[in-house]
Amino acid sequence: MEFNVKKLASDAGVFFSRAMQFTEEKLGQAEKTELDAHFENLLARADCTKNWTEKILRQTEVLLQPNPSARVEEFLYEKLDRKVPSRVTNGELLAQYMTEAANDFGPGTPYGKTLIKVGETQRRLGAAEREFIHSASINFLTPLRNFLEGDWRTISKERRILQNRRLDLDACKARLKKAKAAEAKAALWSDEVEKAEHELRLTQTEFDRQAEVTRLLLEGISSTHVNHLRCLHEFVESQTNYYAQCYQFMLDLQKQLGGSKGEIFSGTFVGNADSTSPAAAPSSPAVAAATLPAVPTIPVVPTIVGVPNTVAEGVLNPNEVKPPASGTRKARVLYDYEAADSTELALLADEMITVYSLPGMDPDWLIGERGNQKGKVPVTYLELLS
């Protein structure tokens, strides 16, 4: 019991001495031991690393999970050392709604078929997003958190100890200075001077030892930067793969929707006389493609030797095709297209061509003309102009 009381009294005395030294330094009434320039640079670099790591970590979390409530939930599960429950991504939820809607509207209807196709693509996008989030969390966020919760806490602890050792050292210097000043007036203070010098030697040794420990930890920040650089490369690779997957999924969907669009508006393309509903006014390139003026349907006649009949034969030879007297339109090419064979026309993005449809053609294709060149072109690569 008596030992505990003495220890508490000693700790209180040390705390009071440090507080007095700190206050006098702030007021400019006491001298302060300055660290060397290299050490100060290490401290500044460490603080900068910590601050920017926190900002990058928080913003990456926002990027991966924009919902703040979901981020708080994940944080609590992590602190409780429990597995975060699997959460449906927005893309997967949208896919579910589209599929259910298609079932209600009729999966065999044009709208239902398109909903199913788009929903499946949204499901694939959602799965890719989930994989990207998981990869980024393991390869990028986890190392950043480990630094802040591990290495940085150790550095902060040792810096606090160093600060206390410095305060003790400067307090001993101040006591020695006072003892020497009093010794000059009275010889009785010689014992106090020896005691102050002894304490100063001890505190100087402890300060030097702690400074070396802290210096080694601060120099380890360079290794932290190397580790974070490697993690950053892995994050970029994951993000690149994710966006590449999304791009490919959307290209596949665009090709699928080209066929669906042709089915929906095939009556308009080939001049279906049975259509009773009026055509809608074009409001976008996709709808504009559906309102291309059509050539009147002609009956299929038997093949006569020496007379080309491309529709009856099922083979289209663009060189034998003549544009209709009316019904041609201008179109702007949206993407580059490489012709697969001699019946197709190669396209360059942003160029202007003349297009028209023929009876019996695949609704996904039109005849395109550019000067003396002529051939089939895909509808999905064009923006039809009114």
Strand order of the largest sheet: 4-3-2-1-5
Number of strands: 5
Q: Helix/strand-derived class?
A: alpha+beta
Question: How many helices does DSSP assign?
Answer: 10
* Strand proportion: 5-15%
Binned, the helix content reads 55-70%
Which regions have little confidence, pLDDT < 50, spanning 5+ residues? 262-314
The biggest sheet, with number of strands, parallel, antiparallel or mixed sense and barrel status, is: 5 strands, antiparallel
Rg, nearest Å: 39 Å
Mean pLDDT: 80
Description:
This protein is of the alpha+beta class and 386 residues long. Helices cover 63% and strands 6% of the residues. The chain has a 5-stranded antiparallel sheet. The longest helix has 74 residues, at 110-183.
Summary tags:
single chain; 386 residues; alpha+beta; five-stranded antiparallel beta sheet; 10 helices; 5 strands; 6% strand
Give a brief description.
With 386 residues, the protein is α+β, with helices and mostly antiparallel strands. The chain has helices at residues 2-26, 37-64, 68-79, 90-105, 110-183, 190-219, 221-264, 266-269, 285-290, 310-313, and strands at 329-333, 352-356, 365-370, 373-378, 382-384.
